[in-house]
Design brief:
- By secondary structure, the chain is mostly helical.
- The protein has one domain (5-156).
- Helices cover 88% and strands 0% of the residues.
- Helix 1 packs antiparallel against helix 5, helix 3 (57-80) packs antiparallel against helix 4 (86-117) and helix 4 packs antiparallel against helix 5.
């Protein structure tokens, strides 16, 4: 059983990973579908606005704070090895760090950067938009499952 300061870290990890999973789940289940249903010029413009808004402090504090927290949990688990629950803590940290943060950096952000370079309403944007939606959403599914899996693994570390 995880207790003491490990308990506090683990609960914070559950909350952070759960919040991020919820945001990503919303995008996977309805936001991207709604944007894809718009004419390409409107969808591109809306997603570009979302991408600018997403990197403001409110979401970034939760997303990057959870990344830092998961890294701390992994390091503390390796260094101090709290015993029971250690495997679950390491699995949860790996899921979040690689499946959520890593996928964001390697798959979703490059797509966002490419979208930022096209002008909404152009033929280039209309051609790129369907591929963007498919690829971005597929990788977002991975992020959603990874963040949710991290939260579940952290919960299992507590039992």
């Amino acid at each position: 059983m995880v207790d003491g300061p490990y308990f506090v870290l683990t609960v914070a990890g559950i909350v952070g990973a759960g919040l991020v999973a919820g945001v990503f789940c919303a995008f996977s289940t309805f936001v991207m579908q709604a944007l894809a249903a718009l004419p390409p010029a409107q969808g591109v413009a809306a997603m570009k606005a979302i991408n600018v808004t997403a990197v403001r402090p409110a979401f970034m504090a939760v997303f990057l704070g959870s990344t830092l927290l998961c890294a701390v949990i992994a390091v503390v688990t390796f260094v101090v090895w709290p015993g029971a629950g250690a495997a679950e803590l390491l699995v949860g940290s790996a899921l979040y760090l690689f499946g959520c943060f890593g996928v964001t950096v390697l798959a979703n952000v490059p797509r966002n950067n490419a979208l930022a370079e096209v002008e909404a309403g152009t033929a280039e944007a209309a051609a790129y938009w369907p591929a963007y939606v498919r690829g971005w959403t597929a990788w977002n599914h991975v992020r959603t499952v990874a963040a949710a899996g991290a939260a579940v693994a952290y919960v299992l570390a507590l039992v």
